[in-house]
Design a protein that fits this description.
With 159 residues, the protein is mainly β. It has a single domain, classed as PCu(A)C copper chaperone (Immunoglobulin-like), CATH 2.60.40. Helices cover 11% and strands 50% of the residues. It has 1 helix and 11 strands; from the N terminus they run αβββββββββββ. Strands 1, 2, 3, 4, 5, 6, 7, 8, 9, 10 and 11 form an 11-stranded mixed beta sheet that branches. The chain is globular. Bound molecules: copper (II) ion (CU). The site of copper (II) ion has 5 residues, from strand 9. Copper (II) ion binds next to strand 9.
Length: 159
């Protein structure tokens, strides 16, 4: 019986770890890059993650690239009167000892001119390379999922 339980636990572990994934480059950790699954004809896709800077110096996310998109931009949401609008930003600071959150209705990566839609379905992953001013480049895998990672997340990003 005990042996049975151990085998069962070993089988369950990889499934748990697969839902949260993390990457690091220099002093930066990038936690759980994800994207919401959208209808197949959606013109753009957004990607989200949290960057933690464990270092003593500020860094800066300069740009992003992905083989599945012709254009990848850094966007932010801003209030204009009563309307929430989004606009491109040139770069985003990752403060020393702090966090930079990309999430629905906040900073996000916007992918345009989508090429490979087969990777944009629930359960798939696509590569995204982040270019930092000091830490350099790191390629992460963005997990495409139907549900936002936490129930506290804002509703799906609409373009
Ligand atoms: Cu956007």
């Amino acid at each position: 019986m005990l042996k049975h339980l151990i085998v069962l636990a070993a089988l369950l572990l990889p499934a748990c770890f697969a839902t949260a994934h993390e990457y690091s480059v220099g002093e930066l950790q990038i936690a759980h890059p994800w994207s919401q699954e959208l209808p197949p004809n959606a013109p753009t896709v957004a990607a989200y993650f949290v960057i933690h800077n464990a270092g003593q110096a500020d860094d800066r996310l300069l740009s992003v690239t992905s083989p599945i998109a012709g254009i990848a931009q850094l966007h932010e949401h801003v209030m204009q009167g009563d309307l929430m609008k989004m606009q491109q930003v040139a770069s985003v600071e990752v403060p020393a000892g702090g966090e930079l959150t990309f999430a629905p209705m906040a900073y996000h990566v916007m992918l345009l001119e989508l090429k490979d839609r087969s990777l944009l379905r629930d359960g798939q992953r696509f590569p995204l390379t982040l270019h930092f001013e000091k830490a350099g480049n790191v390629t992460v895998e963005v997990a495409v999922q139907k549900q936002a990672p936490s129930a506290s997340e804002a509703p799906q990003h609409a373009h």
